[in-house]
Amino acid sequence: MENRLKRLPDAELEIMLVIWRNGQLVSSSYILDQLRDKRKWSLPSLMTVLARLIDKGFLYCEKEGRYNRYCSAVSESEYKESEGKSTLIKLFGNSVQDMVMSLYNGKAINKTDLSELRELIDKVEKEET
Q1: Whole-structure pTM over 0.70, yes or no?
Q2: Strand, coil or helix: 63
Q3: Who has greater pLDDT, 76 or 5?
Q4: Which of 2, 78, 95, 113 is the most exposed place for a label (fewest CB within 10 A)?
Q5: Residue 45: pLDDT band by 50, 70, 90 thresholds?
Q6: Would you place residue 129 in the very low, low, confident or very high pLDDT band (cuts 50, 70, 90)?
Q7: Residues 16, 72: Cα–Cα separation, whole Å
Q8: Of 48, 60, 53, 70, which Cα lies nearest the Cα of 13?
Q9: Does domain 10-72 have CATH number 1.10.10.10?
Q10: pLDDT in tens, 87-118
Q11: In this predicted model, what pLDDT tens digit does every residue of 2-42 receive, in sequence order?
């Protein structure tokens, strides 16, 4: 990916996750409803954050009568690839081994996860040959 995407603050990321999960145009009221257990936002607060996401190039806004509908301008996989690469470089000096050991030592992953990772590596290596 040529242009690295900007990292989203948690609140903006939560909105994007709602939109990515839905996979189609969504209204601001739908987003508010989906986030009601996480955020106690008023509609004007949400609209401010949505405007920010549009300005950053993460969302499109389509007018539908009196209402706005929002859809993703950046795919979830695109964002994950950008953030994953950035995190690997910034925090782990581009060392996958250091990242995996940090996750393992911090108990974020376990031996089962390591086995699954090993299987994935074997699969990818097979596909490349």
Answers
A1: yes
A2: strand
A3: 76
A4: 2
A5: very high
A6: confident
A7: 7
A8: 53
A9: yes
A10: 999 999 999 999 999 999 999 999 999 999 99
A11: 456 788 999 999 999 999 999 889 999 999 999 999 888 89
Q: Is beta strand 26-27 parallel, antiparallel or unpaired with respect to 59-64?
A: unpaired
Nearest by Cα to 58 from 46, 67, 68, 49: 49
Q: At what angle are helices 43-55 and 28-35 packed, to 10 degrees? A: 110
| Residues 85/79, Cβ–Cβ less than 8 Å | no
Write out the DSSP string of 79-100: HHHHHHHHHHHHHHTT-HHHHH
Q: From CA 96, how far away is CA 88, in angstroms rounded?
A: 7
Q: Where in the chain is the domain with CATH 1.10.10.10?
A: 10-72
- Indicate the residue type of 101: M
Residues 62 and 71: their CA atoms lie apart, in Å, by: 8
What CA–CA distances, in Å, run from 22 to 72, 93, 106, 128? 10, 35, 32, 33
